Amino acid sequence: EVQLVESGGGLVQAGGSLTLSCTASGFNFDTYGIGWFRQAPGKEREGLSCINNSDGKEYYVDSVKGRFTISRDSAKNTVYLQMNDLRPEDTAVYYCTADPKVLRLWVLLNADPKGVDYWGKGTLVTVSS
Q: What mean pLDDT value characterizes the chain?
């Protein structure tokens, strides 16, 4: 059973940084793609980034490119999302997601994040102005 547990959210001032963690279990971590999406109150899910755990290739949507960095630690079965220069509009619940096919995951994160098969309970990020 695929399990994803997010952590690291919190309250931060605009311009600050946070690093989110996603610890995965129940599947072969090194062969999956793992990504992040977020959902702000009253808004649709927004895909952010994903990483191919087999080769480390990173994918970012334009809105976070240059501010967010995704990385992985295979020894810990954990994917991180380093978020810098945070803005009030980044306030949302952040979710981790996974898929055995990273390109499918990337397409979904861009076009239809509601279509992902697995996600965790999320971690809340609040950015104050």
A: 96
